[in-house]
Amino acid sequence: MFDKGVNILVEMGPDKTLTGMAKGVMVKDKTILSTMDRKKDNWDVLLDTLGRLYESGIKLDFGVLYGECGYKKVYLPAYPFNRKTYRPLFGEQENEFGKYQNWVYEWSWRREDAAVGCEIKNGAVIVFGDENMKNCLKPYFNSDKNTIYSVSIGEEYSYDGRTSFTINPAKQEDYIRLMEDIKGKVSAVIHMWNYSSAKNSLSELLENDELFYKSAYSLILLGKALIQRQNDGVRCLRLQTRPFQYPMRKEL
């Protein structure tokens, strides 16, 4: 067979019996290949054989090989990754693309100095919330400069004589009395009555008097009491999780 000009022998049988016999002849410059091997993975053996045939100059129809086999595509990024560019090259159009590079914006991050916090001056700090909220905020203030008061919601006005108040959110006189019972200057007011409230719609806010007075309208009554006391330079901060969008943080 080799004497008749056959240079490549491919065995398509269930094993490599014929190829073993052919290699025993010790024919030089001849290619002897098998497509199966019971000691190896048959698919790997077949692919190796096809690769060697392709290297030998044999034209193969790889479309037929993968025609009935599905395979997953790997989506490579169009932008450079790990110092490599994976987008396809389009010949002369690549040079034309460079003309439009200046037409788009490019991210440029600039480092900025951290914002400087506002210093709370000497005086009382009023927290419209329960004792737990007041205690959570205590570490952020100087106890020698600022006395922390808590204001809870109730039906009638009450004061324990130390740092805890209870007022009716709908009564203007309770806010005024609160300011009178706090001796000295008020430096800051932190409104947290709605901090842990559930989300409410605008219609619920307008139809529910209790909800209305402890949220939006309490800020108005509080502002009137502060102005009546002529307490300039008070910093007001309203904290909430999500109920309403009317943040209040300004100097009165």
Automatic annotation (TrEMBL):
One of its GO terms (molecular function) is transferase activity. Residues 124-237 form the C883-1060-like ketoreductase domain. It comes from the Bacteria. Pfam families: Beta-ketacyl_N. InterPro entries: Ac_transferase_dom_sf, C883_1060-like_KR_N. Signal peptide: none annotated. This is Polyketide synthase type I. It comes from Acetivibrio straminisolvens JCM 21531. The lineage of its organism: Bacteria, Bacillati, Bacillota, Clostridia, Eubacteriales.
